[in-house]
Amino acid sequence: MCEGAANGDFRETSQLGEPTLSGPWERLLPGLLVGSVGRNNRDVLAAEGADCAQRRAHEGGLMTRKLILVLSGVALACASPCLAQPDANAPSEPDPLAGFYGNTLRIAVQDYRGLRFFEPDHTYHDRVRGQVFRGSWAVEGDRICTQSPGFNRFCNLGVGKTPGETWLDHDPYTGNKVTFALTPGRQDDR
Q1: Nearest to residue 127, comparing CAs of 146, 102, 144, 105?
Q2: What pTM was estimated for this model as a whole?
C-alpha cells in the first residue's frame, strides 16, 4: 500500500529527497487543486485496484491541470483591470490642429502678409518679410490662440480646418478683417 494512500496525501520528493511542497502550501494546495473531482477519481482508482504509482501519476496530472487553471484565472484577474484602462498617452479626441502640421497658414490683414507654421508640440513660428517670430499656441473652444513674446495674444477661428480651406475672421484688437488660408506643404514668404 502507498504511504498516505488512504487519506490522499501523496508527497512527491525532489531528487534530493526533500518534499516539493512545504509550510502552509503543503496542506492548502492538495485540497485546492485536487478538489472533489480528484477525490472521486481517487476512489474509483482505489476500487479498481490501481497501484500506488498509477494513483500518484493520476493525482499529479489532475493537480497540474487544476494548478494551470487556477494560475490562469489569477493571471486573468490581475491583467483584466490593466487591459481595461485606457492608454494614458492616447488622445481622448482627435487633434483639432492635425491639418495644420506640415502645412502653411497664410494670414492677410490690410497691409500685413505672413506665414504661420504650427507644430504638434504647441509651438509655432511666423515668417514675415524675412523675419521669424516664435511663440506657442493653445486651443480654446473653437479658436486657436497664439502668443509670441513682445506681441499681443490673438485668438482666431481655425480649429478643425484642413489644407485648401480659406476663412475670414476679425482682428480682436482692431476689428479689421483677417483672411486665413491653409495651404498644403511648407511655403516660402518670397
Answers
A1: 105
A2: 0.52
